[in-house]
Amino acid sequence: MTDEGRRKGQHLTREDRYEIQKGLREHRTFQEISEIIGCSPDTISKEIRKHRYHKVREKNPYQYVKPNRCKHRDTCRRRDVCNKKKGHKCRIPCRECLRCNELCPDFVDAPCPIEKKAPYVCNNCPKSIKCLFDKYLYNADCAHREYLEALHESRRGVDMTRDELASLDSLVSPLIQKGQPIAHIMANHKEDIPCSERTLYRYIDMGILTARNLDMHRTVRYRKRRHYTKQPKVSYRKKEGHHYSDYLEYLEKNPGIRVVQMDTVEGVKGGKLLQTLLWPENNLMLAFLIDGKEMANTVSTFDWLEEQLGTEMFREWFPVVLTDNGCEFADPELFEKGPDGNPRMKLFYCEPRHSEQKGELEKNHEYIRYVLPKGTAFDELTQEQVLLMVNHINNTTRPMLHGATPMKKALQSFGTNR
Question: How far apart are CA 120 and CA 109, in angstroms?
Answer without folding.
Answer: 19
